[in-house]
Structure formats: structure tokens, C-alpha cells
């Protein structure tokens, strides 16, 4: 089977590798154009483009599927297109090019969490089970019939980045299995059923913490927005980032946002919530690098006036 692979970020690379390992004829790769990265804003190929270059595969770089991209895809004559986090909509005129259509690997149990940030929203919502789905791409947003699914238990200590990394590998196997079934004429997509939830792309404002919320809800939000867009609050009029926190159900006497600092060998930083406290494990004050919470607390000594807003 001739397969076009479409993807952009690092989480799509395992799927590209899996298709090649499974023996599919990957005739080309569609990815987003090079983007400026780092402080010097150096134009850098996407992780998928970089891997394709290593493999010597033809690469189509396109922000959107315009006339030129459609022509380039058609010239590759794919039997199917596999898509994993490409980052742009596929227009109807491109959907009809491969005879088997576009098979999308999506990191949720559809119809739950349709949209750009399914894993992040799943973690924020406190889902105990998540997973991945392969489905036939159609005009609607993640609405197509499903070929297969896998499930993963959500460890409450995992960030969305860590969970997505796990799903990228197990999902790659599912994608290869789905394409093999399609190639053998044994795949039967099933219409989606169940409650629909949406997972739009997160903004910086989604990372702002509300200390009046219960500790568990705040921890889920911290984990859900890590690594992007990142969790934050304000202190001394500046943004203060929080990379990780753990529940302290034994501490019940702090008001929401009130911080208690410990110094010396047992330094710690506890912050009050709408329920019990959280202990800050990783923090990033304005203008500094991410650091362990105890190091930040030790640097402030015995200050008693620290309040997050």
C-alpha cells in the first residue's frame, strides 16, 4: 500500500516510524513549514520533516492545503493517507485523492475530546481512562467513523506531555494495524456514538490558576497545561509559573493563595487552595529558570507575606 504520511510535531514521529517498520510504502510526507525556534528564532524543520529527511523521503511543506499542495499530493498517487497532528484542515478536494481516504490517529476515545488538545483537556477534566482512536477523516471536526481504539489508564501524577508521549507510541501501533486491516480489506469503520466533548486549543489564559478551586482541580490543571501553555499565577505583580505540585491533605489552615515557606534542610513551599494545600515542586519566578520549590522557598527565608493571586 502506498501511504502519504501527514504530521508535524514530535508525537507524530513514532507513527511514521511504525508505518515504515510495518513495511508500508511511505511515498511522501506532508508537514508544516519550518518555524522559528529559540531565542534567536532560527528557522527549524518540524520533527516530522527532520525524520523524513533522515529517511530520504519526499517532503511537502504546507501551512494549508492549497492548489500547489493538492497537486503535490496527487502526484504521489497514495492509496491512503495517514495523519497524526498535522496541524491544518484537509479540504474535501484533498480528501478524495487516496482511494482509501485519510486515516487519522487522534489521542482520545472519540467522540470524547474532539479538537486540537484532547490529552490536555482529558487531564484537566480528571478522566481516569483515556486512549487513542483511528478514524476516517471527513469534513466535520473529528466526526468520522472509527476503525479502532485503545485505552490507557491516566496516572494522576502524569502531565499531559508525559501522557501524550505514551499515547504516541501505543497509538502508532494502532495506526499501523488499522492500515494493515484496510489493505487486507478487513477494516470496517463504525459510526461514533456517545457523548461528544470538545477540546479546543489551549491559550495562555487556560493556564491561570484559581486558588479558590479545590487542590485536586488545581493539580489537574497544572498537569494538563504542562508543558504548554504552562500553569501560572501572579506574585509581586509578575507572572509566576508553576511546573508541578503535589497534594498535602494534612495542611488545612492556609487561605486560598496564601503561601507558607519553610527554610533550612526541610525547606518547602505550601500554598492554600479552596480545600487543602498543595506543595510546590517546580516553580519559575519571573526572569528566572524553572527551579525546585524548596530552593525557591529557601531563598526567601521566613517571609510570611507571600500570596498568589
Walk me through this protein's architecture.
The structure is a single chain. Helices cover 27% and strands 27% of the residues. It has helices spanning 13-21, 47-55, 67-76, 92-95, 118-125, 160-183, 215-224, 293-300, and strands at 2-7, 25-31, 35-37, 42-44, 59-61, 80-84, 102-106, 129-136, 146-153, 231-235, 238-248, 259-262, 268-271, 277-284, 291-292. The N and C termini lie far apart (56 Å). The model has no long low-confidence stretch (mean pLDDT 96).
End-to-end gap: 56 Å
What's the helical proportion of residues?
Answer: 25-40%
Query: Please, what is the average pLDDT?
Result: 96
Question: Runs with pLDDT <50, length 5+?
Answer: none
The DSSP helix count reads 8
Shape: elongated
InterPro entries: Fmt, Formyl_trans_C, Formyl_transf_N, Formyl_transf_N_sf, Formyl_transferase-like_C_sf, Met-tRNA-FMT_C, Met-tRNA-FMT_N
Domain Formyl transferase N-terminal: 2-177
Family: Belongs to the Fmt family.
Keywords: Protein biosynthesis, Transferase
Amino acid at each position: 500500500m502506498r501511504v502519504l504520511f501527514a504530521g508535524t510535531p514530535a508525537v507524530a514521529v513514532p507513527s511514521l516510524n511504525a508505518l515504515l517498520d510495518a513495511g508500508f510504502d511511505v511515498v511522501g510526507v506532508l508537514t508544516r513549514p519550518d518555524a522559528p525556534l529559540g531565542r534567536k528564532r532560527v528557522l527549524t524543520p518540524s520533527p516530522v520533516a527532520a525524520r523524513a529527511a533522515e529517511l530520504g523521503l519526499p517532503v511537502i511543506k504546507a501551512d494549508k492545503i492549497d492548489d500547489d499542495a493538492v497537486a503535490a499530493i496527487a502526484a504521489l498517487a497514495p492509496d491512503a493517507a495517514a495523519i497524526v497532528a498535522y496541524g491544518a484542515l484537509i479540504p474535501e478536494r484533498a480528501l478524495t485523492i487516496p482511494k482509501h481516504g485519510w486515516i487519522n490517529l487522534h489521542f482520545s476515545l472519540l467522540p470524547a475530546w474532539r479538537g486540537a488538545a484532547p490529552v490536555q483537556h482529558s487531564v484537566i477534566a480528571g478522566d481516569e481512562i483515556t486512549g487513542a482512536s483511528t478514524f476516517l477523516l471527513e469534513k466535520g471536526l473529528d466526526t468520522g467513523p472509527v476503525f479502532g481504539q485503545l485505552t490507557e489508564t491516566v496516572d494522576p501524577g502524569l502531565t499531559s506531555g508525559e501522557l501524550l508521549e505514551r499515547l504516541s507510541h501505543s497509538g502508532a501501533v494502532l495506526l499501523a494495524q488499522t492500515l494493515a486491516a484496510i489493505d487486507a480489506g478487513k477494516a470496517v469503520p463504525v459510526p461514533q456514538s456517545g457523548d461528544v466533548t470538545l477540546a479546543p486549543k489551549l491559550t495562555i489564559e487556560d493556564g491561570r490558576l484559581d486558588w479558590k478551586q479545590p487542590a485536586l482541580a488545581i493539580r489537574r490543571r497544572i498537569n494538563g497545561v504542562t508543558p504548554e501553555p504552562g500553569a501560572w499565577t501572579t506574585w509581586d505583580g509578575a507572572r509566576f509559573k508553576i511546573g508541578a505540585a503535589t497534594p498535602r491533605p494534612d495542611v488545612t489552615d492556609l487561605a486560598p493563595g496564601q503561601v507558607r515557606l519553610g527554610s533550612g534542610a526541610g525547606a518547602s513551599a505550601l500554598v492554600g487552595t479552596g480545600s487543602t494545600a498543595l506543595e510546590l515542586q517546580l516553580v519559575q519566578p519571573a526572569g528566572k529558570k524553572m527551579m525546585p520549590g524548596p530552593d525557591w522557598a529557601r531563598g526567601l527565608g521566613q517571609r510570611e507575606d507571600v500570596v498568589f493571586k
